[in-house]
Amino acid sequence: MGARKRISAEARKEANKTLYFAKLNNVPTSPRKMRLVADMIRGMEVNKALGVLRFSTKEASNRMEKLLRSAISNWEQKTEQKADAGELYITAVHVDSARMLKRLRPAPQGRGYRVRKRSNHVTLYIDKINNNQN
Of 27, 65, 72, 104, which one has the fewest beta carbons inside 10 Å? Predict the structure, then answer.
């Protein structure tokens, strides 16, 4: 690893120490469907978001709920406080596309249609409300 690359990697690691997040890789759901769930909870208070995800009928909401609980746990470990006071908010949710499995489906006249089975990466950031305001 070159010197500049190492310096920028160390700076990125130091910046991540002040952020509270959880990341979920290779979720076998299309990014479009996961973004619908992410848009429902973006900017919400954490306990309210957990309730919304719990009673949502979307399949992606179960994975997002588990990810949100992981982010809360990460915040509690880093700050050594409990998250009961209702002060935590979701600051950002990023849904990026991941690998795509390419399959073939039989089609008429000896042809084959390509089926793209998409997956995604989800990153969820949380923070206290007074730290959120820049």
Answer: 104
User: 42's torsion region: left (phi>0), alpha (psi -120 to 50) or beta?
Assistant: beta
Query: Does residue 19 register a pLDDT over 70?
Result: yes
- Architecture field, domain 21-132: Alpha-Beta Complex (3.90)
SS (H, E, C) 85-126: CCCEEEEEEEEEEEEEEEEEEECHHHCEEEEEEEEEEEEEEE
| Cα diameter, the chain | 64
pTM: 0.86
- Beta-carbon neighbour count of residue 90 at 10 Å? 21
pLDDT-derived band at 134, boundaries 50, 70, 90: very low
Tokens coding 5: 């690359």
pLDDT in tens, 51-67: 999 999 999 999 999 99
